[in-house]
């Protein structure tokens, strides 16, 4: 985890890679294109005809880029220069805008299920806000979700402990080398617990008692109170998040951790607004 990330200087949008692709993700995606697409194509070639790779490159040239086929790099008449064509694509790829890269990823994913699967693994490892679903690139982290997290992380002297828990939750979620979804969920719910105890004016009390105290102050809706009690209970029961692991526990996923971070951030923002913090 980089220093700028640990102290909250990198925007959440950048950390979760929404509307952006950093160098690590770009390199990983290009490697997947080479390994899972180009290098897996057959090298067999009929006499004076393109190989499977050459035909595939010609398809990219005319269907994705929309170029005239007589302008593709050639070794001789009707034989595509695979090396020079891939080099052209590489130069374009590393200069392209983030959304152009996803256009290209989607184009390839519609042609190769194996590529879509390996590409999704790369996207998850680099904490991208997108996944390939049924051959289409789908945004899984919305602008609204990012805004909720960023708003909850705004510096507030009264809520330093809340911010500490939220930043830890984001760090555990966004650690590319060793993501810790279990502890991310734990920190997210701990942030909610922290602000609840603060508003309830009982720093050593229980979460349920804090919500009851909050209800008396700001008229917390009964369904909302039950919902967060249920979420708090989930962190006690699932995956050994707040207690020791058992053999039956299910390992939390990126989606689980992101849901908790966004949901807890939204609830924190709600409580801050209602309690005028």
Summarize the SSE layout with pairings.
Elements: H1 3-6, H2 12-15, H3 23-36, H4 52-64, E1 74-76, E2 79-80, H5 82-95, H6 98-109, H7 113-125, E3 130-133, E4 136-139, H8 143-152, H9 160-174, H10 181-199, H11 207-218, H12 222-237, H13 254-274
Antiparallel strand pairs: 1-2, 3-4
Helix pairs in contact: 3-7, 6-7, 8-13, 9-10, 9-13, 10-11, 10-13, 11-12
Summarize the structure.
Pfam families: AbiJ_NTD4. The chain is mainly alpha-helical and about 280 residues long.
Poorly predicted segments? none
Shape: elongated
Query: Helix segment count?
Result: 13
Approximately what portion of the residues adopt beta-strand conformation?
Answer: under 5%
Q: Average the pLDDT over all residues and give the rounded result.
A: 84
**Termini Cα gap:** 30 Å
* Structural classification: mainly alpha
Q: What is the strand tally?
A: 4
How many domains? The number is: 2
Lateral strand order in the biggest sheet? 1-2
Approximate helicity band: 55-70%
Q: Spell the H/E element sequence.
A: HHHHEEHHHEEHHHHHH
Computed CA radius of gyration, to the nearest angstrom: 24 Å
Specify the biggest β-sheet: 2 strands, antiparallel
